[in-house]
Structure to design on (585 residues):
């Protein structure tokens, strides 16, 4: 089986003639669109809307193909300067689109009967949601050449600072037990069965951050100040307000979810304290034992083992999903193993020009790595469910982006727990799932609180590395309570998590997706096979509706705190079972 993904179906390389041809075509399309938007009022309104959408579709497809290739190449080898250089060329062209695109949106949004025109035309009505949002968001567009200026400045601003964070964290050397390794490899040791390995790795990780903390602090400060400035210029109430609007989530939904999470936090603290005592800690769980395995889950998986396990499992849920999983393994969609210069973590990227996805992971053979693969393959399945949408209807918002991925995790873990041969194996599986649940509730809440503090302070002062560490520790204490040993936290979590250096408030969507998926899985358990088609319709709806309207496909009201409580209660029940098994051992 392959160890790295195959990108050749996109381009054979940056020297592939097709790459340069597509980049030139992008330049031509942007130039033509720019000329087109200079004479919007001289054309028939329906024809103008059609032509504008045609330009946007072609440009979207070209940019998607070019930028995804460059981004994937960069993630796989951050030390190679060529992907960053080529991405710069692509974005330099794409940034010039901001002005004409803003002009088209402004013109369209001011049409008094825009939605009537859209709904009356067969070529436009598929974009009802897009145009309705365009009309609503037009008030946040910058006048004149403001959009183009912001887009161009972002290339040497937020985007460049984000690249710096990725480069530094993927290349910094980590000294561990007399050897030198990288952050991806050292962070994987948090799951090791040897407690001394976990502790040593944690200490080595924190020591490594000292080498890059000041540079990354500059990156974070710069990105967040740019975000604040952008929101002020556009008229958003706050960065959070902008994120919610762009995510198509209401504040009522967010408040309902966070309110339910606050109610259930003590239950997670109970789990952490019981685990801590089982591992010999009396003052809560130290950070380095958060991911300590419990029970008997020592089975190591090869990539072939992972393929067979997931294909067989998902065959019992949906044949379409199972076939896609098999294809992902067999056709080299996946870059599996950690290596020096490769980005850490895991992600899935849709490749629309191929009708496929590509997945990066840092596979180490543990069951948790199989769950990570299932998670990313859920994203790939989500991409597949929206594939027949028009080109501009392919983007789902951050909160619903984690729905299919977490649902896959639920399928994997429920099957594994049910088939466990004894309590020892069942404990290992339940504890693994509780680790993940604690991440999307306690850790995500701490990240949300940290980013809230950063935005509250950045306009008035520069926050050095020590200040950022203090904010992070405060946020962790609030979210983990007495479940963690307050003397052994992770003050540098702001440095290693790439989400702070891209989309604003890319934290609460994980809690949203995780709880939303658990609520959906509970419905699947109740309804059985008939639920599957409803589930796929819901995934397809995510790109053309608000989060609230998407949930209605499954009869869910997201503004009702009781829905979130019901999802959290499924985790609370697992915590009770975990505590019972541990106490009886």
């Amino acid at each position: 089986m392959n160890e790295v993904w195959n990108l050749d179906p996109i381009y054979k390389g940056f020297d592939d003639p097709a790459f340069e041809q597509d980049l030139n075509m992008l330049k031509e399309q942007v130039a033509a669109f720019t000329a087109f938007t200079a004479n919007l009022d001289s054309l028939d309104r329906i024809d103008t809307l059609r032509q504008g959408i045609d330009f946007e579709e072609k440009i979207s497809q070209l940019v998607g193909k070019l930028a995804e290739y460059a981004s994937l190449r960069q993630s796989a080898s951050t030390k190679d300067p060529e992907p960053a250089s080529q991405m710069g060329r692509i974005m330099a062209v794409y940034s010039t689109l901001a002005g004409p695109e803003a002009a088209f949106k402004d013109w369209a949004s001011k049409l008094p009967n825009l939605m009537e025109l859209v709904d009356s035309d067969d070529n436009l009505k598929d974009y009802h949601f897009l145009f309705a949002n365009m009309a609503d968001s037009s008030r946040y567009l910058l006048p004149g050449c403001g959009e183009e200026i912001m887009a161009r400045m972002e290339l040497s601003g937020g985007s460049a600072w984000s690249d710096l964070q990725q480069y530094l964290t993927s290349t910094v050397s980590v000294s561990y037990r007399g050897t030198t390794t990288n952050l991806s490899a050292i962070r994987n040791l948090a799951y090791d069965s040897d407690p001394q390995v976990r502790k040593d790795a944690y200490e080595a990780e924190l020591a490594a951050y000292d080498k890059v903390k000041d540079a990354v602090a500059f990156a974070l400060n710069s990105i967040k100040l740019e975000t604040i400035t952008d929101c002020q210029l556009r008229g958003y109430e706050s960065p959070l307000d902008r994120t919610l609007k762009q995510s198509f989530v209401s504040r009522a939904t967010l408040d309902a979810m966070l309110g339910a999470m606050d109610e259930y936090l003590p239950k997670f603290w109970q789990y952490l304290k019981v685990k801590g005592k089982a591992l010999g800690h009396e003052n809560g769980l130290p950070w380095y034992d958060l991911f300590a395995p419990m029970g008997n889950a020592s089975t190591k998986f090869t990539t072939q083992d992972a393929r067979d396990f997931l294909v067989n499992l998902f065959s019992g849920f949906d044949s379409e999903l199972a076939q896609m999983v098999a294809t992902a393994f067999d056709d080299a969609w996946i870059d599996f193993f950690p290596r020096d210069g490769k980005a850490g973590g895991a992600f899935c990227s849709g490749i629309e020009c191929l009708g496929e996805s590509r997945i990066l992971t840092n596979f180490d053979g543990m069951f948790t790595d199989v769950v990570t693969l299932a998670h990313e393959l859920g994203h790939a399945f989500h991409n597949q469910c929206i594939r027949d949408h028009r080109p501009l209807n392919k983007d789902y918002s951050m909160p619903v982006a984690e729905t299919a991925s977490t649902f896959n995790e639920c399928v994997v873990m429920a099957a594994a727990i049910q088939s466990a041969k004894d309590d020892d194996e069942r404990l290992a599986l339940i504890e693994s799932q509780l680790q993940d649940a604690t991440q999307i509730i306690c850790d995500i809440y701490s990240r949300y609180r940290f980013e809230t503090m950063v935005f509250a302070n950045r306009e008035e002062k520069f926050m050095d590395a020590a200040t950022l560490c203090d904010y992070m520790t405060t946020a962790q204490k609030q979210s983990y309570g007495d479940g963690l040993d307050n003397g052994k936290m992770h003050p540098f979590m702001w440095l290693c998590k790439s989400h702070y250096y891209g989309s604003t408030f890319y934290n609460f969507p994980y809690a949203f997706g995780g709880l939303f998926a658990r609520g959906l899985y509970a419905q699947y358990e109740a309804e059985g096979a008939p639920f599957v088609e409803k589930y796929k319709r819901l995934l397809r709806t995510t790109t053309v509706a608000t989060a609230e309207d998407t949930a209605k496909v499954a009869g869910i009201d997201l503004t009702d705190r009781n829905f979130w409580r019901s999802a959290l209660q499924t985790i609370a029940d697992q915590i009770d079972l975990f505590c019972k098994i541990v106490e009886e051992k």
